[in-house]
Amino acid sequence: FKGGDTCEYLLSSGRFLGEKVWQPHSCMMHKYKNSEAKNCLIDKHVVFIGDSRIRQLFYSFIKLINPQVKEEGIKHGNIPFEDKSASIKVDFLWYPEVNGSMRQRIKSWTEGSVAKPHIIVVGAATWSIKIHNGSNEALAQYKINITSIAPLLEKLAISSDVYWVLQDPVYEDMLSESRKMITNEKIDAYNEAAVRILNSSSRNSKARVKVFSVSKLIAQETIMKSADGLHLPESSRDTNAMILMNVYCNKIMKPIDGSCCQPHPPLTLIQKIAFCFFTLSIIGYLIISLIHRNNYRKNKSCTDLESGEEKKPAISIPNVSTLEMLLHCFCKLGLIMTYFYLCDRANLFMKENKFYTHSSFFIPIAYILVLGVFYTENTKETKVLNREQTDEWKGWMQLVILIYHISGASTFLPVYMHIRVLVAAYLFQTGYGHFSYFWIKGDFGVYRVCQVLFRLNFLVVVLCIVMDRPYQFYYFVPLVTVWFMIIYATLAVWPQIIQKKANGNCLWHFGLLLKLICLLTCIYFLSYSQGAFEKIFSFWPLSKCFELNGNVYEWWFRWKLDRYVVFHGMLFAFIYLALQKRQMISEGKGDPLFSSRVSNVLLFISIVSFLTYSIWASSCKNKTECNELHPSVSVVQILAFILIRNIPGYVRSVYSSFFAWFGKISLELFICQYHIWLAADTKGILVLIPGYPMFNVLVSTFIFVCVAHEISQITNDLAQIVVPKDNSTLLKRLLCIAGFFSGLHFFSAMQDQSRH
C-alpha cells in the first residue's frame, strides 16, 4: 500500500486488457458519456498547448463532448472549440517547440486579472529533435527552456490543473526520411530532462505539475499500428483523452465505476453510530467472556492433595445467556462489516475493471460443473423439488451468477438472457415455496411472517447502514420481500383457502383459482401502468425503501422484468400438490414421475423446449426487445428444467451436495458479492493481491464464501432471539424494531439536511 492517491497510478501506470481496454494500476476508469463530460466541464476553459501529437489529444478530448466534431482545423495553427449549451471552451494552441513563444503565452495567464484556464495540457519535443537534427545543443536548450517555464506552470497549478505530456515512443521503421532523426533514444533523453526539471522545481505539493506519462506506456503497445510511425492510432489517443477526463472529472462527478482520483468518502452520522455500536458490542462480549472464564477457572474440578479424589465444582457451568449470544453475534458481525468497509469504501485495497472473454466465463462454469457432479449423493426423499434438490438448484444458479458478474459477461447478450432465466428461477422458487407452505400448513401467523422478513432483510439493512447505500440498491432482496408479502396477502385475505379446507369441498379450488386470476390481473395492470405503480411506491414510507437516485423507475424496471414468474411458481405448486393429493404422479425411489409413455413424451417435449429457448436467447440481437419478451417466455425453460430434473426416477433420487451447500447460503453470497468479491458496488473486481490475478481470485473467493457462511449462521442465531415464538414477547420486539427504524429515519433526515 503506497497511499491513497490513485491519480498518480492513473497518470503513470497500467496495462491493456485485450487489445483496446486500458486498465490503470490499482483503480477503475469510468467511460464518460457526452452528457457526463458536459456536466463535468460546464463553464470550464481547457487549453492544449503543443505540437501535432497534442493536437491529436485535443481532438479526441473534444469528441468526448461532441462526437460529431471532424478534424478539419488548420494543421499548423490555433484551433478553437466551443460548446455553447454548456459554456465549455476548449482551445488548441500551436506551439510545437518549448521556447520563448510558449513561455510568453504561459506567462500571460499568470499576470494581472487575465482569466486562467481551468485545465492546461502541455507537451512538445519532436519538432526540436527534427529541426535541429537531434543535436545535443538542442537538448541543452530544451532543458533551459523547460527550467524557465516550470515556475510559471507551478504558479498556474495553484488554481488550475496543469499536465505535462511526456513524448510517446516512435516506430522508427515507419518514419519518413525527414523524421529519421527522431529516435526513441532521443525521446527518452528529452522525457528524462522534463521529468527531472519539473519534479525538482516543485516545492509545494498543491502547485505540482502533473506528469502525464501513461501515454508513453499506451504507445509502446500500439505505435506499431500507427499510420506514419509518429502519431498514435485513434484508439490509443481516445484512451489518453478518457484518462484525462477521469483525472479531472472523477472527483466532481463521483461515478461508481470510476475509483481513480476519487477522494475517500467521509463517514456519515449513521456510519459513526454503527461503528460505536459494533465497538461497544465487541467490548461487551470480551468483558462477559472474561467474567465467565474466571468463574469457570474458580469452579473447575481439582484434585484433593490429601485424599487424591477429584472435587466437584460447587456451581455448574452456566448456559450461554441471550445477552452473551447477542453480543457474540454482533461482535462477529462488527468485524465482518469492518472488512466490508475496508474493501469497498476505504482506499485500502485496489480495484480493477472487468473484462469479458469467453474463456473467463465458460472455463469456470465447466470447472464447477465437474465439481458438482463429483459430489453426488442420494436424496433423503424423492419428491418433486424436495429440499435437497431446491438447495442444489439455488447453489449452481448462484455460482453461475457469481461467475457471470466477475467475468463481466453482461456484455455478451446470449449469456445475459440465460442469466435472466436464472434470476427468474429464484423468483419461481419463491412463489412455489411460500405458496406450498401456506397451502399445506395454513400458518398465517405473525411469527412466520416476521421470521421470513428478518432472514431476508437483516444483512441488507446492516449493509445499508454500514456502506451508506439505499435499500433498493440491493434490488433482489426488495424484490423477494415484496413478492413474499404479495403471496401472503393473496392467500391470507378472506376467504382463507388452504389444502385441508379444499379437500372437503372441491369448490374451494375454484375459489383459489379466482384469487390467482385476480392477482394476475393486478400484475398485468401495474406492468402496463407505470404511473399507477410509481404512485403506489412513491408514498412515504415506501418511497424511502424503493427510491433510487430520487425516483422509483429502477424498482419498476426490476419488478416488471420478472413480473409473471412468481405467479407461475404459485400456479405450478397448486397443480403439483393437487396431482400429488390425487396420487396421479409416482414419486417412489427410481420410479418415473408418470407412466413410461407419458414420461417419455413429456421428457422429449421438455428437452426440445429447453433447447428452443436457448437457441432463441442466443439469437437475440436487441436487449430491450428480448427483455420485453422475457417475462412471458422465461417460464418455458424453467418448467422444462424441472421436468427434465424430476421425470426420470434415477435423476430425481440423487443430488449434488456441493451445489446444495452453496444453495443454503445463496442469498448471503448474492448480497456479499457487492462489496467483498466484486468492488465499487459490483462495477469492478476487488484486488487483494495485485499482479497475480488467479491467486487473487482464489484468496478473495475463499474469504468471500467464508464470510457469507458466517453471516448466514449469525442471521439464523439472531432470528431466534429477535423473533421469538411467544406472541407477547414478539410484540415487544416489533415495537423495538419500529423504534429502531424511526431512529434510523430521524438520523437519515439529519444526514440529508447536513449534506444539502
Automatic annotation (TrEMBL):
Gene Ontology cellular-component annotations: Golgi membrane
InterPro entries: Cas1_AcylTrans_dom (IPR012419), NXPE4_C (IPR057106)
DNA-binding is among the record's keywords: no
Signal peptide boundaries: none
Species: Sylvia borin (Garden warbler)
Segments passing through the bilayer: 269-291, 325-343, 355-375, 396-417, 452-468, 474-494, 506-526, 561-579, 600-617, 659-679, 685-709, 730-750
Protein name: N-acetylneuraminate (7)9-O-acetyltransferase
Name of the gene: Casd1
Catalytic activity, reaction form: a ganglioside GD3 (d18:1(4E)) + acetyl-CoA = a ganglioside Ac-O-7-GD3(d18:1(4E)) + CoA; CMP-N-acetyl-beta-neuraminate + acetyl-CoA = CMP-N-acetyl-7-O-acetyl-beta-neuraminate + CoA; CMP-N-acetyl-beta-neuraminate + acetyl-CoA = CMP-N-acetyl-9-O-acetyl-beta-neuraminate + CoA
Subcellular location: Golgi apparatus membrane
GO biological process: carbohydrate metabolic process
Listed Pfam families: Cas1_AcylT, NXPE4_C
EC identifiers of the protein: 2.3.1.45
